Amino acid sequence: MAKPIPLRVLQPLLLTNLNILPSSITWQNCTLQSDSWVCVRQTPNDNSPAETVIVSLKNTNNVMRRPIRADSAIMHLTEPIIALKAQSRTVQLFNLETKERLQTYTHEEDITFWKWVSQTTLALVTNRSVWHWDVLGAKAITPTKIFDRQEQLENNQIINYVVNDDESWACLVGIASNPAGGIKGNMQLFSKARNVSQPLEGHAATFGTIRLDGASTDTKVFAFAVRAASGEAKLNIVEVDHNSANPAFPKRLIPIHWPAESNGDFPLGIHIANKYGLVMIITKFGFIHLHDLETGTALYLNRISEETVFTTARDDEGQGVVVVNKRGQILHILVKEDVIIPYIMDNPACADIAYKLASRGGLPGADQLYQARFENLMQQGMFADAAKVAANSPRGFLRTPNTMQRLRQAPNQPGQITVLLQYFGSLLDKGALNKDETLELARPVFQQGRKHLIEKWHKEKKLFCSEELGDLARPHDLNLALAIYKEANVPQKVVAALAELGHFELILKYCTQVGYQPDYNVLLQHIVRVNPEKGAEFAAALAKAEGGPLISIDRVVDIFQSQGMIQQATAFLLDVLSNNLPEEGNLQTKLLEMNLLNAPQVADAILGNEMFSHYDKPRIAQLCENAGLLTRALEHNDDPVAIKRIIIQTEKLPEEWLLNYFGQLTVDLSLECLDEMLKVNIRQNLQSVIRIAQKYSDLLGPTRIIDLLEKYRTAEGLYFYLGSIVNVSEDKDVHFKYIEAATRTGQLNEVERICRESNFYDPEKVKNFLKEANLSEQLPLIIVCDRFNFIHDLVLYLYKNQQFKSIEVYVQRVNPARTPAVIGGLLDVDCDEGIIKGLLASVTPSSIPIDELVAEVESRNRLKLLLPFLEQTLAAGNQQQAVYNALAKIYIDSNNNPEKFLKENDQYDTLTVGKYCEKRDPNLAYIAYRKGQNDLELINITNENAMFKAQARYLLERADPEIWEYVLSANNMHRRSLVDQITSTAVPESSDPDKVSLAVKAFISADMPTELIDLLEKIILEPSAFSDNPSLQNLLMLTAAKSDRGRVMGYIQQLENYTPEDIAQACIEVGMYEESFEIFKKYDRHADAADVLIDHVVSIDRAQEYAERVDLPEVWSKVAKAQLDGLRVTDSINSYILASDPSNFLEVIEVATHAGKDEDLIKFLKMARKTQREVPVDTALAFCYARTNQLPELEDFLRATNVADIEASGDKAYEEGYHEAAKIFYSSISNWAKLATTLVHLEDYQAAVECARKANSVKVWREVNSACVAKKEFRLAQICGLNLIVHAEELSDLVKQYERQGYFDELIAVLEAGLGLERAHMGMFTELGIQLCKHHAERVMEHLRLFWSRINIPKMIRATEEAHLWPELIFLYIHYDEWDNAALAMMERAADSWDHQSFKDTLTRVTNLEIYYRALSFYLEEHPMLLTDLLQALTARIDVNRVVRMFLKSDNVPLIKPFLLSVQPQNKREVNHALNDLLIEEEDYKTLRDSVENHDNYDAMELAQRLERHELVFFRQIAASIYRKNKRWDKSIALSKQDKLFKDAIETSAISAKPEVVEELLRYFVDIGSRECYVGMLYACYDLIRPDVVLEVSWRSGLHDFTMPYMINFLSEQAKTIELLKKDNEERKVREASQQKKEDDTPILGSRLMLTQGPIGSSPSPGPYGQSNGIAPQPTGGFRAF
Q1: Distance separating alpha carbons of residues 363 and 623, to the nearest angstrom
Q2: Where a domain ends, among 725, 742, 771?
Q3: Domain end: 696, 725, 754, which one?
Q4: Cβ neighbours of 122 (radius 10 Å)
Q5: Closest listed residue to residue 1020, CA positions, set 975, 1050, 1060, 1042
Q6: 282 neighbors 206 (Cβ within 8 angstroms)
Q7: Per-residue model confidence as pLDDT tens digits over 512-541
Q8: For residues 308 and 829, what is the distance between their CA atoms, to the nearest angstrom?
Q9: Domain count for the chain
């Protein structure tokens, strides 16, 4: 038997299954900090963005992918926090769950290694030092330097950094190549306390702790592993920071066995499994070394990974180690707890290690050894050692009450503590005690008064808290007992302790936490008596508990009232009723009643805060009225009679409150109350009524209030009321009534104000009222008439009443702007002019609108009346425009030198005055319009009066383009007349070039070329200031070119100052090419002249003649280009040579090449090469040599210096069929690929193959192969083919090529030859198999057996299926794990491919369950004798019920009887039915009985009915058994009686446990005289037969002798029962008495506080209403809220 392995290797994850690239699984990209997370950075090869994959090892389905680009990424030890490093210096931390950035830091040096060393600390290692960064704690915002790196770590790759738990020790590990071979490990051990470093040689290191025998604290150890260059490996374990109280730990230097196959291997990681005290060393090659930490002894060695390991980490629970290898496997190595101890104990030398390891890790396997040692020590009297063994026993299996009893009985050594206490001491040093140990230790400790020890052990969690321990502690320390009760979860005693300690506020919190429900009524009564204030707080907490009140609020109030605690009851109710719920109405009423009767001021405050709204308001209103709280009574009253009764007492009601109260009443009730208040005492209540009316005017309605006040004839009231609303009211009646009331009360100032400011009165009505009022002061009337334009009525009224003073007041003080209307009115009534002039003289002119005044007077033909007034106004310095307008009109009408006034005065309105003059004198209108630049008016007046000369001069003077456009418009019927005056008069008279230029532009814009030419000729050709103006000359020529071309040639010769370029271009644009040519020729612009001849005249001959005449290179170049464009290639080349111009060589080469002018082109190119070294020139020259077959010249040219694109020339020569020339080209540049193709065309195949080999190009090999196959050069073709088929994408084309030409054997030969190539791929093996299927079927199976693993099986499957190669097809299905198709193919082609064993093995692996049933049908038809064997193989996979139905349908159930028997334990209904039917048919009653007794899933009644009719008694007996099993007692017994199976009948009646069934059967046996059965019934159904029935039957039938044994036994048992009951009754009485005494002596809450007795009898009873000690509880309608 193989020895069990003590380690278990789990693979929680394979990284490649998560689409992680194998290239990303490296030490740099894949990081593992703990057993919680693995982090991989990868950059896909398909140009996808880089991403970081984070996988949770606790939940492998939790895979996070983030588009993070960083140099490095590591996950936190346990939390979803990732640390990222970029640019080797910047570090950032992110929380992946909250997506929050936690920290950012940029270091001053490059960070070469980093690692999490604790939950909050990140270690950063640079080239010079080591830093710690407390990133999640609060110690440091920036990293803290720990130590500097030593020299021996320079040029080392840092692979690890470890610290101990308190970070007092650290070790940095690096590796480097060893010159002697292998990997050298260097370490730097640093002590923080000493601030010193020590260099060490080692590859892996770690820190840990171990508890040594006899030590009170853990010993700190440092372990590291090293493998020297010589191959020797060692494990070092040393103690650091030795504690003098502990025994010394001897230094361990243990050789490590290194397997022979692990050369080059070295320790990669070392970890301590703290739970077991084991050291695990992981090597790079995947080996694990297991050592004991205390002794260093090697325990186990094995290989856990075939791939190299690059990172390791210890798991959080300290039970194993996690590693990652190059394949991407995450391996978790754990200790097999049930195997490790037996494995170690197999080595006798390690028995002591196993013994300690079992105790340290609580491992099974050493229990027998501990038990034997314990017994041996006890027998030897070494009780202290035995106690230690029991205390250290694995899983505490020896820590039992029996062990403590034996240790208690052990004798004590003099001067030493007892063995039991030593046992407890060992346990306390090691850990915690169990329940029995805790109680056993606590009793003597409490008895000795050493309570502090219990407290100490309790704080250290070394005691097992129980109710019994709390009872022991209670007499000594109630707080300690409370803590124990809490931890032991004894809520009733916790509550009692809290109440006894007075911590009432903690009781509810505790009960809520633990879900305990005490009797809160009793508890509250007790607390109220002890501490009323705390009682109120506790009651409030109970009532407001989450989830609903824990106590009835009514009950709480009753408790408070019974104690006379009105104040506390009030405070409680205010607290619990704060939510103001409808169902709390009776409690709200009770609260208010209680305070209204005893403390009205409290009730008033409660009502004032409006805390409640669901109490009995009528009841409270009556109580408030009785208590004198009238405001509260009114607030709660809805009875109008009561309200009116109370509200008239205004002296007792605050006025402000009364005002607010009326806002709560209805409109009708409010008016009734106001009416009542005025009727009862108008003098006292008028002010209040007015204030109420003012405040609620909008609500009550001003009309109704006015009617109410008028009812009591109080004008003063009306005045004050309306005065408060008139400023905000828009009611006309309100304003009129206010004016009326103010008038009657003599408040004329208010009348004047309202008339002036109000916009809502009826002016007509007010005007008439004021006229009728006949006021002494007419100012209100004046204001109304002024505002609403009743000026005529006002003047008429005042004039009739001879109140001229009022008129003066109006125009002087009220509104001087109305003076024109007043003057008009006075003129209408034919007032004396002296009065009018005097009135005008009394008004300030600046305040009078002169326009209106002039209009009023002018409309009445009295304008001269204003002359003195206007002159006086000017003399006063008034510069209003209206004054000047009026004076101008007067001067015009009076013909008082108006021209002078109009020309010299600038103050009048030219438009107004001009309009006034149009009909009187057009010249005056022209003067006014010209002065004001009123353009349109001036044009109209001059057109109407034929004043075109004046208009022309004005236009030239005005110089406005818009005016010019307007007058020169074609719609202007006077344009011709105006143009004549402009040409003949205005322009010649002008000397301003800008204005003339503007006029010219206007003519141009108006599209008047003829008129423009006439204008320009008059300016330019005739002597003038503008004759030499270049712009005008240009304009003249341009205009002539567009409208009169005949004049242009003359202008060219006459004029000299125009711009030739512009004019020539303009001529070209309009098609005047000869004129353009003449201009260029006149100014010696030969190149431009040639362009005109070539581009526009389109005469190359004239251009050539012109070039010969001027003989200039630039002209020859232009002519050459034109000749080239005209395809006169030879002439063009000659012209280019005459011009010595090779610049257009590209076009010349292109055109000459297409034209076939190679000889001419060679001359041009030779000329061009003199000055140009261009690639196109040399390339074209070389190709010309090739096309003209000048091969020697071509070779000389190529040998000479040139810059030709030889490859392009060769390509072109190859395309055009000049293969010899192409060969020269390609040979000169050693282009083997193209040379090979060229040689193919030259039919030099051998040389072509050699060139193809040099070129080594797929395309070349393809072309050469195709050519060789076409020429049947199969040897050379095979050479090419072998270089093609190694490229998978070329294989299909090659195959098609061979197949199209029918060379199948040659193709197979090529493929077979290619199988031995190093680059042979799957496609080659697959294609060879396909070809063999098509042409050599007999070789297919051999090919498949040899190469099935390298074939594309799906493709091969199609080929074999098409070729009908069934054995080969099934072979492929099986090797492709296509078990379903394999099985189907075997069944479909059974004659060729079926084999039972092979088919059975295949069928057990199929995934489609339907194939199972198809296979069963196949076997039923073809191989029925093998069905049982097939079914046995498929039992676990098929639906048994379906199989049974299938065979039932085909009536072949007997064939599967063995199968049915094998699956019947599954107790399936179909199986049971089928098998039972088969057994009945076979009359196998024994098997049938076993079936129905052991399997109950069948139709019992149907089967029983079938069996009871069976002819064999055995089957009827089975039917009776079925009836009995289904509690059909009557049927079962009847069937048994029928077959005289009385034993079965007796058993059935006994099983039924029904006395009536038993009694009936008993009487049956008596009736048939079966005395044996009668006695059997008495025995079997002893407990079911009543004694009286037995005596009756016995007496009636004379069966006393047979009945006597039954009676004797019955009487004996009856006597015993009575005696037992008497004894139990006596013991119960004694027990109850003892319990009663104990309850009487033991207080419930630690003192004699009888919580269960209700109120104390001696407490004072509550007094009646009105007494100071409270009120007695009274019912409030019988309603209970809870």
Answers
A1: 82
A2: 725
A3: 725
A4: 23
A5: 1050
A6: no
A7: 777 787 877 777 777 777 777 777 777 777
A8: 129
A9: 3
